[in-house]
Amino acid sequence: MTRSAGRQSLVEGEFVFTAEDFRDIAQILHSHAGIALNEGKAALVYSRLAKRLRSLGLRSFRDYCALVQGVDGIDERQAMTAALTTNVTRFFREPHHFEHLRDQVMPGLAERARRGERVRLWSAACSNGQEPYSMAMTVLAVLPEANDLDVRILATDIDPNMVADGITGVYSEEALDAAPPMLRHRFFDKAPSHGANMLSANSALRDLISFRELNLIGDWPMRGKFDVIFCRNVVIYFDDATQERVWKRFTPLMTPNATLYIGHSERVSGPATQQLNTSGLTTYRLAA
Q: What is the pLDDT of residues 214-248, one digit of tens each?
């Protein structure tokens, strides 16, 4: 450990990073995004936020905490959250979910849509858009005319940079390796203006998805209900109480028999277990 002006640092480096600094940052992150940090993450927090200190011209983590906690700190709170969250995503990640959506869920939703009924899907932690575009390809594979019907996908994420990437809809060919070749060729076009080996989502995909910034522990402005919700590999970063609150908030926004897909390391807990029945691997269905 290093010492500076009597303050003991948790991490060796150019900035003093005390246990108090860590607790302040952990509290801010938990309040803002629901993410729980333990002190074992001190080195990771230091390495990621030291870049922010340099960028802002700050001399200490104490000054950084004061900035983030201040009345003008909202932009930096967003930047801090983005720096401390890991946006791991892939097209058709956990493919059994998309197979279930295609084979078990979409046939019924397609019938409803063709009768003129409303169908809504939500990617509740969409990262850079690979999940909702995978959802859109699955929908269109079953219901090619979806864009002409009342079918839409909402894609939300706390990180505005990820939302912007989703709106852009441009990915490397390598990123799309996991997508079924027929769907990749059908729904993505070469995008040489963005660089070699880059592909852009076509209008059929883009028109089906609305990207919005949304904090899962903040206000949810949606009023309509969803037939399908993907919320995968995000609540694992929350403490138990926050996880239970998030699961409980989903159920009033689900139509009868709606489907919820969650991450492979996650389990529904708390009051929501009274309403959500297992319907497959990390797949739940709301009781009618």
A: 999 999 999 899 999 999 999 988 999 999 999 99
Residues 26-68 pLDDT 10s = 999 998 888 888 888 899 899 999 999 999 999 999 999 999 9
CA end-to-end distance (rounded Å), the chain: 58
pTM here is: 0.86
The answer to whether residue 157 is catalytic is: yes
Across the range 205-221, mean pLDDT stands at 96
Q: Of these residues, 7, 48, 90, 245, which one is catalytic? A: 48
Residues 6 or more apart whose Cβ sits within 8 Å of residue 54: none
Query: Catalytic residue among 24, 157, 159, 227, which?
Result: 157
Nearest of 127, 109, 126 to residue 118 by alpha carbon: 109
How is 136-158 classified by DSSP, letter by letter?
A: HHHHHHH-TTGGGTTEEEEEEES
- Of 125, 131, 122, the closest CA to residue 154 belongs to 122
Helices within 36-116 (DSSP H only)? 42-56, 61-69, 74-84, 95-100, 106-114
Q: Exposed, middle or buried, 234 (CB in 10 Å: 0-12/13-18/19+)?
A: buried
Q: How far apart are CA 136 and CA 129, in angstroms?
A: 11
Cβ atoms of residues 119 and 150 within 8 Å: yes
Note if 48 is an active site residue.
yes
Helices (H), 106-239: 106-114, 130-142, 160-168, 181-187, 203-206
